[in-house]
TrEMBL record:
Residues 9-167, 290-337 form the FAD-binding domain. The keyword Oxidoreductase applies. It comes from the Eukaryota. Gene3D superfamilies: FAD/NAD(P)-binding domain (3.50.50.60). GO terms for molecular function: FAD binding; monooxygenase activity. This is FAD/NAD(P)-binding domain-containing protein. Keywords: FAD, Flavoprotein, Monooxygenase, Oxidoreductase. Pfam families: FAD_binding_3. InterPro entries: FAD-bd (IPR002938), FAD/NAD-bd_sf (IPR036188).
């Protein structure tokens, strides 16, 4: 085994994918530095078998299990009148859930707590990456003035990745669905338990034509909601939160009163516009030495199959294993570059499969198949 393999690795972005990567590498004595602009995330992640493998590889499986909720697997699909057309309830003795639910903020905290001291640098907004002449290295510059030279830069910086243009000219595409993310505080939820009962322990989705409403109960009792509808303008929702909620409600006229009440009771100071974008199914690029992508930066997809978090952390694990394999075989930087290129091919193939399913489900929404059509798709997935 080589003891001299010590590549300088920079990871841009502190979401689950970047944090899994830094943790798996660290557990195998390969140092990496993660640069985070200190954005907070509070959406949720459902992790299937591939995501669970990443938690084990990152050394946080026991902590993950303690903080995940098997009952969060409960899923309802409803029509706009509130009629349940699909209902999945995990068995009471579900000791080995296939897709345990965990709040993304908790997942991020678990991974941050496990990362080696000093490996995560907050307040480092990425500005630029410049190839170092005559080498495969990159000089990185951050908004706070910090500069560093690395052998590998990994773009884990999400949908609007600043690293992606280094390897790909492809731009993300607006899919024709826009809307908002809102939430109901735990206190408000506790005062309206009848609404919580309608949602259930996990997630409830309502669909009518190209209009979609999702409500999810977080571990702390907060209800997080997403409302999407068709619009040619991704920014049609008013930027003023006070105007945004009435605007959203106007798109859900005729829906069940309790569904509209979920939106009415949302915190008016926490309304976030959420137009949906995606990369083409099968997005790939010609490998470029010293740079690669993971997560949404690599394979941004819409949420209609619930696989984004799974693929992101799975890909991060695969990239880490490729780099670890180079060290274990006595390789150097050239071998690492070849391993990264192989990772891009393998991860790209897997992401293409999941992105295809997501696109099919998205088109069900856009084509107005309604709740029954989506329920049938869920039954097929469930087997």
């Amino acid at each position: 085994m080589s003891t001299t393999f010590s590549p300088r690795i920079a990871i841009i972005g502190g979401g689950p994918a970047g944090l899994v990567l830094v943790n798996v590498l660290a557990r195998n004595n390969i140092a990496a530095t993660l640069y985070e602009r200190d954005a907070e995330f509070s959406s949720r992640a459902h992790l299937g078998e591939t995501g669970q493998a990443a938690m084990k590889g990152a050394g946080v499986w026991e902590t993950f299990q303690k903080n995940s909720r098997p009952e969060g697997e409960e899923t309802k699909m409803l029509d706009k009148d509130g009629n349940v057309v699909y209902h999945h309830v995990p068995p009471p003795d579900n000791t080995s859930p296939s897709r345990p639910e965990i709040d993304r903020s908790m997942l991020r905290k678990i991974l941050l707590d496990a990362a080696p001291a000093g490996s995560v640098k907050f307040g480092h907004a990425f500005v630029s990456a410049t190839p170092v002449t005559g080498t495969a290295q990159w000089e990185l510059v951050f908004a706070n003035g910090h500069k560093t030279v690395v052998d590998l830069v990994v773009g884990a910086d999400g949908a609007h990745s600043r690293i992606r243009p280094l390897v790909s000219d492809v731009r993300i595409r607006y899919v024709g669905l826009t809307g908002v993310e809102v939430s109901m505080s735990p206190d408000v939820g506790a005062a309206h338990k009848e609404l919580l009962a309608r949602i259930g322990s996990g997630s409830a989705y309502a669909l009518d034509g190209p209009k979609f409403l999702a409500a999810q109960i977080n571990g702390d009792g907060r209800v997080r909601m997403y409302a999407w509808f068709h619009s040619d303008d991704p920014d049609v929702v008013p930027s003023d939160p006070a105007a945004a909620i009435p605007f959203i409600l106007s798109h859900y006229e005729g829906w069940a009163p309790w569904m509209r009440q979920l939106i009415e009771l949302a915190d008016p100071q926490a309304v976030y516009r959420r137009p949906l974008y995606m990369l083409p199914v099968g997005h790939s690029w010609t490998h470029r030495a010293g740079v690669t992508l993971v997560g949404d930066a690599m394979n941004l997809m819409t949420p209609f199959a619930g696989q984004g978090a799974n693929i992101a952390v799975w890909a991060a694990l695969q990239l880490a294993l490729k780099i670890i394999g180079v060290r274990e075989s006595g390789g150097g930087l050239q071998e690492m570059d070849a391993a990264v290129a192989a990772y891009e091919q393998e991860a790209g193939k897997r992401a293409k499969e999941e992105a295809f399913v997501t696109e099919v489900n998205m088109n069900r929404v856009l084509n107005g198949e309604g709740a029954q059509g989506m329920a049938e798709a869920l039954r097929l997935i469930e087997g």
